[in-house]
Structures are given as C-alpha cells and as structure tokens.
Design brief:
By secondary structure, the protein is of the alpha+beta class. It has helices spanning about 1-5, 20-25, 45-50, 65-70, 100-110, 125-135; strands at about 30-35, 35-40, 55-60, 75-85, 85-90, 115-125. It folds into two domains: about 1-50 and about 125-135, no CATH class; about 50-125, Alpha-Beta Plaits, CATH 3.30.70. The strands form two sheets. The chain has a four-stranded antiparallel sheet with strand order 4-5-3-6. Strands 1-2 form a two-stranded antiparallel sheet.
C-alpha cells in the first residue's frame, strides 16, 4: 500500500526498526537514536556521508590473473576472487566518497583490458550497517 501511494506521488511518513523496509520505500530518512537526530536527508546523501567500505563486484565470463588486473588501478586497494569468475575490488578508503568515479574508471579500464564483463555492481553498506556506524549499536 505504501509503494502504491509513493508511486502516486503521495508523501508518507512512517517509522520502522525494519531498516530494509525503510531502504526499499524511503527517498528521505531521519535517523534518531537516544532522542538525538543523527541524520536527516536523502537516502543517497546518507550513503555518501556514512560510507566506509565500498567494493566493486564484477563477474567475468572467464577467470583472470588478479595481479595483472590490479596493476591497472591506483584507486583500488585489493581484488579478490569470491567465487569462480566473480571478483571483489575494494576501493581505497580515502576515495570511498568518490566511489561513483572510481567505479566508472574500474569498469572502463576492465573492459579496455579485454576482460569480458558479465555483471557489475557497487557493493556498499546496507542501511542497517550505516545505522550501526552512526549510532554505535544494533537497531
């Protein structure tokens, strides 16, 4: 019902401890803990403000030699194979707020290196993880 209202352009205010629902439904959020407002704003702003660990997950059609691939980047801390042909590249912490530019560079460089990309996504923190980072406790 909330999604239907949202799709019709109706503003809905709701409070929930089920942060996965908030993440799915909300455009703007307020995080309150111990009667204090920790954050208020756009969900994307929250992700950028609280980001600490951003990884790029890429699935290739064929395995590749990680050391040669890693050597193509200055902004990637490490690349590990998390399952066959699926790799996780960790963005250097000091560049985490620029993850969109880093991701674009990573994907472009990977394709130009003739690695055939099957799937690509940015893996950041969930709203639960962001809340824990901001509030210091489990919701």
């Amino acid at each position: 019902m909330i999604l239907e209202l949202k799709n019709k352009g109706v503003s809905v205010l709701f409070s929930s401890h089920i942060l996965s629902d908030v993440e799915e439904l909300a455009d703007r959020v307020a995080i309150i803990n111990n009667a204090g407002l920790l954050f208020q704003g756009d969900l994307n702003e929250l992700h950028k403000a609280a980001v600490r660990d951003v990884a790029l997950v890429v699935s290739l059609f064929e395995p590749t030699e990680i050391s040669k691939w890693l050597g193509l980047f200055d902004d990637i801390l490490s690349i590990t194979e998390i399952k066959p042909c699926v790799y996780r590249a960790v963005v250097k912490p000091e560049l985490a707020l620029q993850y969109d530019a880093v991701a674009l560079n990573f994907l472009t460089t990977t394709v130009l290196a003739n690695l055939k990309v099957k799937e690509f996504k940015i893996s950041g923190l969930s709203l639960d993880e962001l809340f824990i980072n901001m509030a210091g406790e489990v919701p």
